């Protein structure tokens, strides 16, 4: 496993990290379609990741309504302090008017609940899972800064922010002397490169770490989805289209991946992950898995060294997908996200 510095912090994270959206949720819609792994199955994946050198584990309170955090905490056990533990808050966790968002009230409750479920006294990286247009950033960042000073959080980060939202938050932190985002977690893949226009330059300029979710575009970049159909009847993309992919251009990108993978004697997924981690500014690619063989194959991406020719070939074959993050972030009126 290789490691990279998380932005301007002093910590290093594995270039491939484990996301836990597949943990739990057997009887909870839509998490029952994500994997719904029980404690035993999830524990096996955590063990494989730890043995493979993974030291960043990413979850969120909303994953399986908290079950993902509970399962991860138990699976880590005594090895909790060997890793960088990351979780998120913002999404609805109940039916109450204040059971979501980035208010001081909700964040304080959400943090304490995550600590309890994870069985730990601190979160290494606590991330805002989205932008809240109703709560002033001063309130949100002030609450996070208090939690940092209390020792409940080591670093703070954001996820699914636009460039202007990110820069405004950093400006508020700098102006008021509050804890600053250490990282931004975003969707990025060979078939989803929208963030290269504004978000990625902002992250690089501000010295933040970039954590990538969906680096395989929910399985599209594994090669099991072809122009003739899917080769895996249990594939996630057969149950939903998030993140969206321009299929025709996407298949062109997969064709290029297949050619590069053959030259390196590896598989398409590992090549797609290697492309992501080779991009300047990227600290780690967060991968999810339902089966041990999937995870082992993804971890192999850390050993794939793409040449300048490989990168140029893949860049030429891929094309922008629908604008990100507009399709993932609901608007203030509560309408369904575009895409």
UniProtKB/TrEMBL annotation:
InterPro entries: AKR, AKR_Detox_Biosynth, NAD(P)_OxRdtase_dom_sf, NADP_OxRdtase_dom. Pfam families: Aldo_ket_red (PF00248). Residues 16-317 form the NADP-dependent oxidoreductase domain. CDD domains: AKR_PsAKR. This is Aldo/keto reductase. It comes from Streptomyces tremellae. The lineage of its organism: Bacteria, Bacillati, Actinomycetota, Actinomycetes, Kitasatosporales.
